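Comment thread on ticket #2218

A.B. wrote:
> Attaching the input chain for the structure job we discussed in standup.
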Amino acid sequence: MALTRRQKEVVEFIAKFVDENGYSPSYEEIARGLNLASLATVHKHIGALETKNYLKRSFNQSRSLEVAPKYLQEQRRQRQGTAMEVPLLGSIAAGSPVEAMEQRATLSFADFVGSKDTFALEVRGDSMVDDHICNGDMILVERVREARDGDIVVALVSGSETTLKRFYREPGGMVRLQPANSALKPIYVHPRDLQIQGRLMAVLRKY
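C.D. wrote:
> Ran it. Output below, let me know if you need it in another format.
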């Protein structure tokens, strides 16, 4: 169950207090620190946080509140996600100059690398150069077994050759693996000789 705004404030106050002082706050200190009306309100929030497994406490002991592992794990995931974000400051024209505009947003790479089904490959060759995928580029791939027409896929052909191509189903049951290079011919393969290993998510290039 998700925390309410006030419950989030309570558990964050307790975690910060423990970090700064080495012991947990009293209920009176929580009430003063968060401007809560009464100790009964503090008890209510503490009970709800216990039920949701964000806090632990020992009864009949003062200063016995302890932040539970669930909260610490969520904070760790949030920090990791933030570490994979960069400011998104706007857009830029590749033709005529445009006026730069400040834009308060971030681009999160957690969208790409936050899953165990994501992996990276280094591109070798120029068969996809017309799709702006060049030799030496790094690609991020989502591990999938099925593809839609037009997807750029990592395909294993005849159990031995792995290639990066656009996927198309052809009349008659064959599959066409289409390069993005006018100098190269497509590969036609029977589905039984083809294994889709992943679908392209992003292209990374260093300069």
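A.B. wrote:
> Thanks. Noting for the ticket: The radius of gyration is 27 Å.
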